[in-house]
Amino acid sequence: MSFLLPCPNCGPRPVDEFTCTGEVTVRPKSDPTLRDLTDYLYFKNNVAGVQREWWCHRLGCEAWFTADRDTRTNEVLSVEVPAKK
Amino acid sequence: MRLEPQQGERIDRSHEVSFTFHGASVRGFEGDTLASALYAEGQRIFSRSFKYHRPRGLLCCRGTCPNCMVQVDGTPNVRACVTPIREGASVEAQNVWGSLDHDLLAITDKIGGPFTPVGFYYRTMIRPRRAWPLYEKFLRNVAGLGKVDKHAGRASRYDVEHRHAEVLVIGGGESGQAAAREAAAEGRHTVLVDNGPDPIELEGVETIQGTALGTFEGGLVPVDAGLVLYRFRAGHVVVAAGAVEQPLLFPGNDLVGVVLPEAVRRLVGRWSLRPGTRAVVISADDGGLDTLPYLERAGTEIAEVVDLRETRVHEIAAQGRGGRLASVELDGLKVGCDLLVVSGGRQPAYALLAHAGARVEYDDGRGIFVPTDLPPGIEVVGPAAGETGDAAIPAATYNGAAKKGKCFVCICEDVTDKDVKRAIAEGFDSIELAKRYTTVTMGPCQGKLCHVPSIRLYARENETDEATIGTTTARPPWQPVELGLLAGRPHEPAQRTAIHHRHKELGAKMMWTGSWRRPHSYGDPAAEAKNVHDSLGVIDVSTLGKLIVSGPDSAAFLERLYPNRFGDMKAGRIRYGVLNSDAGRIMDDGTLARLSEEDFYVTTTSTGAGAVVEWFEWWNAIWRMDVEIVNVTGALAAVNVAGPNARELMTRLTDLDVSNDAFMYLDAKHAHVAGAPSLLLRIGFVGELGYEIHFPSPYGEHVWNEILAKGADLGVKPFGLEPQRILRLEKMHILVGQDTDSESNVLEASMPWIAKLDKDDFVGKWSLEHVLERGFREQLVGFEMENGVVPAEGGQIVIDGRPGGRVTSARWSNQLDRAIGMAWVPPNLAEEDAELTIKVDGSVEKARVRLRPFFDPEGEHLRT
Hints:
The structure holds two protein chains of two kinds. By secondary structure, chain A is mainly beta. Chain A has one helix and six strands. Chain A has one helix at residues 34-42; strands spanning 4-7, 11-14, 19-23, 50-56, 64-70, 76-80. Chain A has a four-stranded antiparallel beta sheet with strand order 3-4-5-6, with no helix packed on it. In chain A, strands 1-2 form a two-stranded antiparallel sheet. Chain A is globular and about 40 Å long. Chain B has six domains: 12-126 and 138-142, Ubiquitin-like (UB roll), CATH 3.10.20.440; 157-240 and 347-387, FAD/NAD(P)-binding domain (3-Layer(bba) Sandwich), CATH 3.50.50.60; 245-345, FAD/NAD(P)-binding domain; 406-473, Arc Repressor Mutant, subunit A (Orthogonal Bundle), CATH 1.10.10; 500-728, Gyrase A, domain 2 (2-Layer Sandwich); 734-863, Elongation Factor Tu (Ef-tu), domain 3.
């Protein structure tokens, strides 16, 4: 893991400057069944391909953003800072 | 013995340099390497081989083979042939038992053959099992190369430098220089890395004398430049790493005097040395033939030249005397010689390309492996790409039927063709498995001299072709590298509070908490704790994480993050909060003070600030609520004054009315303390009346000094982390990370009042509800020992002879005159007075469960 990740604010930076919290998941709405809850908490899709992930430029601008990354090649196709509501 | 001065020699005969070899003085010239100077003084044996302790001499002369590895000033495995001579250096040979000329372990070469075949250490020295410690001691002593001086100080400092280049060219040969010139002419920022002995100067190109160790994703190329590791990020990498001269496999191919062509070129051309008196040249390509003019210049008689492209040779056997070449037999024809120049063709140095993901393909027309399918961003030029000229494919071995000595496939690890055959016979038919079993390619040359010959031998023995055998995976580093260089300069960030130096002056014993330095105590933890109970203590709590959360949505935001309720909090009040993950696990804890309708002041644990800020920001990246989160941890210092005299002290330090009615327990107020604009929090982690004062860091020492001065007659004394831990344990306050782990939740940690499950939602709510549904599995409780022994933290709770729980904290409390602690126990034992048995140093001791704070359970001390 030494690829460059394009931070939406700072441009391409070494990946070790970032934190990754894994794939973007959908939090169940309310009163989930135990199955829905454990699916959300523990079961990741873990695709071999493009997946959307949460990244934070921890040692830079500290912004959180989502990145579409190909898990096979580490190519980052796009990044996006979530829009203010 | 030098030749007459000649044009192009790299030595400066007017400038002598001397060093010692095994204590004896050796003189050389500026421009010599350690090896060339030793060679000039007649040294021919430079090391003893790995397993058989056979004498070894210069083979490649370009830093590839292991033969000239020596110990220089305590540093092992220095390649003498490429290490410039240095005045006063102390050089010693390696892997020598006795002397270089008479090595005691050379006996293994004579008689060890049948007993030390490939992988012998997996089979022998196993029984009797009791003797293993002896075997191990012996093996440890004889294995490995060089000796690390455990007592050596740090002689040199290593550094890491991050660099960028648009174009990084690796290799400064003809093709590398051409590529660099071309890139520079296009106006691109170009850096050329070369590990050759001569500095290169190119217009518009930055050149670095160093070795590229590998290529990693993102165009990352670490370059070993001696004491600096450059971490290059290159937009485009051009590999011009050249090709490696290959040896031939025949009996006696490791004798001193058998050399590769470059050795002749360097010995004669650079250092004006005669490589031998009578030479035989056997060459599969032009490499060997190119040495002929050098040999003539050196006055070496050329006895025989064999061009394998024209002449077929079936058997080659070199014979020696005392490990040094004496003659060579070519198909039965014996030629006396003391120099044998062999060239088995050149193998493209593709490793750096393979690291980057290129494929490697066997070219059966030329008998070499060539790189193909290059990934984007990397390019190969020159011999590394396969432009290695016309060459014959050498035979796998030139062994005759008669036994004429050992034929080495791998000189680094002393692996012979017989060993390889034996491995195949034992079933190691895949090259990757055979590599691990025989260790061919795993020595110091990392396969540069043995990879292709071993594959050729595998193909022949398995009756298949080289393409089928394939190559082993190329992995960085491509050249050996000193571990110190990879470790770099130690950068251990240490955070100090604004009051740090005062602690040192007061004789504090410092300790690490995360990256913070904090006083463990000022000498007597028990007395410091007692002073808090009796009169007044002060502790530096600047390490607490401090955040300001503000904005119209701040209360709603915190309510969603914490299981607690904050919406109903009045401005100026404080609540204790525990932060949970969505899986309901405890992440951090701290206090939250509502400063106004829209502003909250949040403290975290000392080590948790960064993670908490990140956690807050992450959830708000999802929720997008109208809040701002500012980390003011470093900007603010904080001290906690606690003890019965705390109020009296505060009246002396501030104009604020600190009477119990005006400033109640869990109130937060702004005021000036000793002139510093401060936020005062009336909280009591340590169980006594206390005030936490937060103020700008620059006032740190001033406020601390004022507290000590104004409180002198009140008995104020600083206390450290250890007394604080005793005090908080008396109050049964948890320490996140000490009493909780990654599995703990607030319900089982006996803080059910934290979780307001009637809230619509909060992070971790559903998981906590599930915990209620499934029932508790364990519970965090307090305990006191019946006989006063303090169990170890992490100690076992024993139930019916089996482990049933664990101690998380335990201390002796002078205040209570008891040994107390906290532990996770099965829920049925989480009852007041339940009996616990705790393992202490092998014996079992009794304890009683306590569910309420040991000290001042009603909290009267806090509210006075």
